Amino acid sequence: MQDLTNSKFVGTWKPVSIEFLGNKGDFESESRLEIKADGTAIMSSPDEAEDDRKAFIWKETDYGVFLDGKHDFKLKYKDDTLYLKFLGVSIGYKKEN
After folding, report:
1. Measuring CA to CA, which of 1, 47, 84, 92 is 20 to 30 A from 21?
2. Which residues share a beta bridge with 1?
3. By C-alpha distance, which of 45, 35, 40 is closest to 96?
4. How far apart are CA 39 and CA 57, in angstroms?
5. Range(s) of the domain holding residue 65
C-alpha cells in the first residue's frame, strides 16, 4: 500500500447534507467515512456489526476520491466537501476536526 499521509482526504468524514429529487437539506447521522493513510477506507454506522462495515481501497483522483470495494463509489470534492451519489441521493461529507 502507498503512504497517503499528506493527502487532504485522510481523516474521518461525517455526513452533513443530503439532496434528493432537487430537495436539499442538512443531514445528521452517526455514520462515518474513515479514509486512512495506508490506502484503505471504512464506511460505518454505529448500528452495524463490525463485520458489516464496508471496507474499501481508495485513491485520489482529479475529481476527488475513488472507493474500490464490493461497490465502487466516486466522491466528488468541492468546497471542502466530499459528495457521494448513490441511487439518486447525494450525501455531502465534511472532515471532522
Report:
1. 47
2. none
3. 35
4. 6
5. 11-95
> What pLDDT, on a 0 to 100 scale, did the predictor assign at position 50?
62
pTM confidence score:
0.86
Q: Is residue 73 in some structural domain?
A: yes
Domain assignment present for residue 3? The answer is no
Consecutive 10-residue averages of pLDDT for the chain (97 residues): 84 96 89 94 79 84 94 95 94 93
Written as nine digits, the cell of 50 is 463490525
Residues 6 or more apart in contact with residue 45 via CB below 8 angstroms: 29, 30, 31, 32
* Grid cell listed for 72: 465502487
Total tally of structural domains belonging to the chain: 1
Q: Name the DSSP class of 10.
A: -
